[in-house]
Amino acid sequence: MNAHEIDFEIIGEEMQFVEIELDPGEAVIAEPGSFMFMDSDIKMETIFGDGSSQNNSLFDKILNAGKRVLTGERLFLTVFSAMGSGKSKVSFASPYPGRIIPLDLSEHGGKMICQKDAFLCAAKGVSIGIEFQKKLGTGLFGGEGFIMQKLEGDGLSFVHAGGTITRKDLKTGQKLKIDTGCIVAFTKDVQYDIEFIGGIKNSIFGGEGLFFATLTGPGTVWIQSLPFSRLAGRVIAAAPGLRGSSKGEGSILGGLGNLIDGDNGF
């Protein structure tokens, strides 16, 4: 095992948090702002990169931090290390109502692709990078799915998703059509693409955007019923003063991404 072995408990229902138990010398990495509380013998340190390699040069650390900016995350990650002689606990909270999903990367081929704002925390040793969708059409019209996070390693990671979560195990060649924002995570062998909805009435009046994401097996997909972008869109729609701040995050088409993703304001 390259990543630290950690124990955990997920607590709560609508607004969950994960409590992680660390043995002496073990550590967990987390997104800034997700920290909830910890025992007094845990040391907190802010770092460039993800701490997965101690031999990274300063340039590599800056490059890794820069990649995180592309996914809408901050430049830094926070490491929480157990410095005492016994077991210690640290907890991290969900950013909005939903569920925390534990993902053991060693059980999923050592790699997982997830929505760009889904990562919450992970055992130290897990590498956090970015995954570009390589096809031109996917990049132009994929909306929130254009740039995603990549988790690699053999340790435990935790991602957060909104609303109710469902897991779909796809057989070889089995295809699932899904709203791009509803994708939480999928295993490395799942093929990601987009598909035109078709039909003038569907495209103009359907209210679901112009394209589906298509995920083709074999592999496993986690789906959320309430993407944060959809939740934020409803809040903005209810507060006219905030309408001008809406933007299509993740799509290189900018504001047009709202129409493509179905968030057309009608």
Task: Report a brief summary of the structure.
With 266 residues, the chain is an alpha+beta fold. 15% of the residues lie in helices and 40% in strands. The protein has 5 helices and 19 strands.
Descriptive report:
The structure is a single chain. This protein is α+β, with helices and mostly antiparallel strands and 266 residues long. It has one domain: Double-stranded beta-helix (4-Layer Sandwich). It has helices at residues 58-70, 136-141, 200-205, 228-238, 256-260; strands at 7-11, 17-22, 27-30, 35-38, 42-48, 76-82, 88-93, 98-104, 111-114, 119-123, 127-132, 147-152, 156-162, 165-170, 175-178, 183-187, 191-196, 211-216, 219-224. It has a 6-stranded antiparallel β-sheet. Strands 11-12-9-16-19-14 form a 6-stranded antiparallel β-sheet, with helices on one face. β1 (7-11) and β2 form a beta hairpin. The longest helix has 13 residues, at 58-70.
Give the tags:
266 residues; Double-stranded beta-helix; 15% helix; 6-stranded antiparallel β-sheet; globular; alpha+beta; 40% strand
